[in-house]
Design brief:
By secondary structure, the protein is α+β, with helices and mostly antiparallel strands. Helices cover 35% and strands 19% of the residues. It has 3 domains: 5-110, no CATH class; 138-205, Dna Ligase, domain 1, CATH 3.30.1490; 208-350, D-amino Acid Aminotransferase, Chain A, domain 1, CATH 3.30.470. The chain binds adenosine-5'-diphosphate and magnesium ion.
Length: 363
Amino acid sequence: MTCDCAILHNAATETEKAGSREVIYASCNARTEVGAIAESLRHAGYSPCVIAVGASEAPAKGGVLGDLIGELKGLAPKFVFNLLEEIDGDCGMEMAAAGLLELMQIPFTGSDSFSLGLALRKYHAKLALDAAGVPVPRGVLCAPGDEDALSSSGGALRLPLIVKPVREDASLGVNSDSVCRRPEEVRRQVGYVHEVYRQEALVEEYIDGREFNVSVIGGTGPGDEAPEVLAIAEIDFSGMPEEEPKIVSYRAKWDEGSPMYRSTTPVCPAPLSRRQEGLIKEIAIQSYQVIGCRDYGRVDMRMDAEGSPYVLEVNPNPDLAPEAGFARAVRASGRTYQDVVLGICRAAMARGRLSGEDVLYAF
Ligand SMILES: Nc1ncnc2c1ncn2[C@@H]1O[C@H](COP(=O)(O)OP(=O)(O)O)[C@@H](O)[C@H]1O
Ligand SMILES: [Mg+2]
């Protein structure tokens, strides 16, 4: 079959970290976004090919990379719709795959390798946001073997604290024990992150209050449309069992049978005063620009009891499945999924024309 564009995504992984409380649920692997994006592209007259990346696809001799380069070279797509978030459970590979597309000079949708990488490094992203004047929860980084850092710099933080792995997404490492009210709980949870996730723990002041997901479209580069907030969604935590923290933990995201899943219902658009809405939008766009996102993204925020918003993280590659938050925000803004998907493709192709590349490197 000939195709003129490609949808790149990661093959579903079944790898679970040893000792992890974050187990694989069926919904973690359901990638309904691939089918929905393919459908939108076909509807607009494109002929997309789908490329799944990951060892579960039994790589040939050159490994995953060899396979991918060969496939991209063979297809020579006009653009790639990039839905790849990790390779075989390693989310650090998200930026590497975008880097490969950059090297091969294939236009692709979504953020570039730099922004994908920066956003994933939550502590560095926080430093960048803070330096630009974006309000973020105060936090410290605690490396394995350096638990003393906690008593020195961590002592300046005000309890309760939340502990999470510094470079994961999808709420990996975020569970019922992540919100800590006593120093010994913080130490235990930092130990959990070190042992299971083998990376630094990010220890942050816990923002007790409302949570918002702010979906943004547009870009920050030359020729890109200015960023624009689609709609603000709020997570409704009412109904959360008394003993559970009001957070979007791993089980809240993926374990459809759990009480946490049932008590983290998105409400879009969120009920907000005009002033609150304006403030949240302004902070979301500023955050999106600081991380350098393009085409689409989602900024996660919490608001404390005084009504001050704080940015938790910027997601340059949120789930585009029709039932996920981004698509909900698209509809709440009066747009159609199809139109936004095509707008994203057009932006990628326009970037391709801007950089004038139609010649692939000799890979
Ligand atoms: N500083 C914080 N204060 C309050 N809740 C937080 C904080 N950091 C994270 N959370 C909770 O944990 C969830 C996951 O954290 P987040 O930083 O967004 O990681 P992920 O990339 O895994 O989504 C958030 O949606 C929120 O409910
Ligand atoms: Mg998040």
